[in-house]
Design a protein that fits this description.
The complex is a heterodimer of chains A (282) and B (336). Chain A has two domains: 3-46; 51-277, MetI-like fold (Orthogonal Bundle). Helices cover 77% and strands 0% of the residues of chain A. Chain A has helices spanning 3-43, 49-53, 67-97, 102-116, 119-134, 139-164, 167-175, 180-209, 235-244, 248-280. In chain A, α6 crosses α8 (180-209). The longest helix of chain A is centred in the N-terminal third of the chain and has 41 residues, at 3-43. Chain A is flat. With 336 residues, chain B is an all-alpha fold. Chain B folds into two domains: 1-32; 70-331, MetI-like fold, CATH 1.10.3720. Chain B has helices at 2-25, 35-73, 76-79, 93-124, 127-142, 145-172, 187-212, 215-223, 228-238, 240-256, 259-264, 282-289, 296-331, and strands at 83-84, 89-90. A two-stranded antiparallel sheet of chain B has the order 1-2. In chain B, α4 (93-124) packs across α12 (282-289). Chain B is flat. Chain B starts with a helix and ends in a 5-residue tail after the last helix. The chains are: A mainly alpha (282), B mainly alpha (336). The interface between A and B is large, with 98 and 91 residues.
């Protein structure tokens, strides 16, 4: 190949590969918009107040909503948060304060392990630990599963956010003779509060979007129930059931419910990104 | 040898010089007088211990509960393909096969695509554009898996059935990979949906790894007359191990993904080489059959599948984290 031909070939290859990368980005973002577009267009008939204020209609009837599923999701997430947030938060504080030692290293590793465990496996564990002894599916079992899912996310963001607080804060507190625990609680945590808080919200968003761990723990319920020891409905299981139902009207409701779910998750995610970036890009 | 030892020592003493200040500030430090500190440290340690206890509890409970199945079937559990709840016979091979096939298939499609996107984000996109574009890609990861499943059932499956699969059968039907009838539901749908789902994680880690490569490498390549793409290839060579770990983390996600796969894979416990046929994965069989499992051995077998799934993802994640950790040591933090 002559020098000129080689040069042309290299320039051609350069242009081609660079445009390939651009095309792959377009394809990926295209898929995102495709999913959003379908969610809106297919669910548009049911994106209304009925969806969030009405109970499910009897089988075969049109209309109805998922009021019980929304309340159920909130109860399940509240149950999970009740122990997931304190465990995640304090474990995160511990890890941020203790860099060395086998225990801290083990816990840090196990946090990653927990984060990687498939959510369906966590559902199986919740089934063994809660459903089997109680001999029935219950909101408690679902909440237990969601809590496990929330812990690693909260632990990790808490640790990271605390580490991002400049050490001068800590030094200032200590220089004033304030005990370390007070420095932590009243100086460092408030400084990292925004990040930790949105991290917690992000984990709540993840828990609300989970389906697999609820299938055989909270099970689902077509009726109004707020009993903690009874099966309870949730938005995601509602979508799962309605997606597989042979009624067009139900399928549309599943899309509408998905729309609400996606919006919820997106808003929480965007807030998280915005807050963490704004606070700490120095 | 002695020189390098000296070097090493110098480095360590350099680190040591920084340490005492840091140690004095940490809870495990030398001030142990304040009782409040002692209480606070132990309270936080207790919560950290709960994390450890949870993981131990999970492994213990799953092992105990799957023990009847482990004892009853032994190794044949993973080598037999008879899944027959009526006769209380359980072999998990079809599900293991389905999990590996779908995840590796998705990885095959997702890695080139993700690396392409990562190159665009880290090497080509101007600074002001990079952040919002990255955010869009990462929003894909935030979509709940049930929504992917819905999208799969009502959009992807019909599209595969009417457009893609007939074409594949027509043109490539002679290959065993594309043999069969256009059901829509099946391995191909699962692979495609998994591809979309693992793209964001592979992309964002690859992007971070590439960004960690020092600019001097790009500049050196450019100064020698390399085209932009040739310079990027230098960067790619340096980020190989990082991309590998990104792929492993993506694989870990794919292996454990449940809802979307369950909704589109067709749920059939057959081992088939064709991507057109319905199949099953370890996660999807749990989602489908767990709540309805009747006999004790049935439940026990399903829990053993969960245990296997746990071990698989644990190994994948541990290897991937190990690689990320090594890169971080060399180049600085990589957010994974």
């Amino acid at each position: 190949m002559s020098t000129a031909a080689l040069y042309t070939w290299r320039k051609f290859k350069n242009a081609m590969m660079l445009s390939m990368t651009g095309l792959s980005l377009l394809a990926v973002i295209g898929v995102l918009f495709l999913i959003l577009a379908y969610t809106v267009s297919k669910g548009i008939n049911h994106i209304n107040w009925d969806l969030i204020t009405q109970m499910p209609a009897p089988v075969g009837e049109e209309g109805g909503g998922m009021a019980n599923a929304i309340v159920g999701s909130l109860i399940l997430v509240a149950l999970g948060s009740a122990y997931g947030i304190p465990v995640g938060l304090f474990a995160g504080i511990y890890l941020a304060e203790t860099e060395k030692g086998w225990f801290a290293r083990t816990v840090r590793f196990l946090t990653e392990v927990l984060n990687g465990i498939p959510s369906i496996v966590i559902g199986v564990v919740a089934f063994i630990v809660v459903v089997l002894p109680m001999k029935r599916f219950s909101a408690l079992a679902g909440g237990f599963a969601l809590g496990i899912l929330m812990i690693p996310l909260i632990t990790r963001t808490t640790e990271e956010m605390i580490r991002l607080v400049p050490s001068s804060f800590r030094e200032a507190g200590l220089a004033l003779g304030i005990p370390r625990w007070k420095t932590m609680l009243f100086v460092i945590l408030p400084a990292a509060f925004k990040g930790i808080f949105t991290g917690i919200f992000l984990s709540i968003a993840r828990a609300i979007g989970e389906t697999a761990p609820l299938l055989f723990t909270a099970l689902g319920n077509r009726f109004w129930s707020t009993e903690l020891d009874q099966p309870i409905a949730s938005m995601t299981v509602f979508i799962y059931d309605y997606a597989r139902a042979p009624f067009d009207d139900w399928n549309q409701q599943a899309w509408a419910a998905s729309f609400i779910l996606i919006m919820l998750v997106f808003v929480l995610n965007i807030i998280f990104r915005f807050v963490t970036r704004k606070t700490y890009t120095a | 040898m002695s020189l390098s030892m000296q070097d090493h020592n110098d480095q360590r003493s350099g680190q040591q010089a920084v340490r005492p200040a840091a140690r004095a500030l940490s809870l495990g430090g030398m001030f142990r007088k304040n009782p409040g500190d002692l209480i606070f440290e132990n309270v936080t340690r207790f919560f950290a211990f709960i994390v450890l206890a949870l993981v131990v509890l999970m492994v213990y409970e799953m092992t105990v509960q799957s023990w009847p199945s482990i004892q009853h079937f032994g190794f044949s559990f993973v080598s037999s393909s008879d899944w027959d709840p009526v006769n209380d016979l359980y072999g998990a091979l079809p599900f293991i096969y389905g999990t590996l096939f779908s995840s590796l298939g998705a990885l095959l499609l997702a890695v080139p695509l993700s690396v392409g996107v990562a190159i665009f984000l880290s090497e080509i996109a101007p600074g002001w554009l990079e952040q919002p574009l990255s955010m869009l890609v990462e929003l894909l990861a935030a979509i709940p898996s049930i929504v992917y499943g819905l999208f799969g059932i009502f959009v992807m499956v019909p599209w595969l059935q009417t457009d893609i699969q007939p074409f594949l059968i027509e043109e490539f039907g002679w290959m065993p990979l594309f043999e069969g009838a256009p059901y829509g539901f099946g391995m191909l749908a699962a692979i495609l949906i998994l591809t979309i789902m693992i793209l964001p994680i592979i992309t964002s880690i690859s992007r971070d790894v590439m960004r960690a490569i020092p600019d001097t490498q790009r500049e050196a390549a450019m100064a020698l007359g390399a085209t932009r793409w040739e310079a990027i290839r230098i960067v790619l060579t340096g980020s190989k191990s990082g991309i590998l770990s990104a792929a492993l983390l993506g694989l870990g996600r794919a292996v454990g993904e449940t809802m979307a796969v369950t909704m589109v894979i067709g749920n059939s416990a057959d081992i088939s080489i064709s991507v057109l046929n319905p199949a099953h994965t370890m996660a999807s069989v749990l989602a489908n059959e767990f709540a309805e499992a009747t006999s004790q051995l049935y439940v026990s077998s399903l829990i053993e599948i969960a245990l296997l799934l746990f071990v698989m993802t644990l190994i994948l994640n541990a290897i991937a984290r190990g690689i990320v950790w090594r890169i971080t040591k060399r180049y600085g933090a990589v957010a994974a």
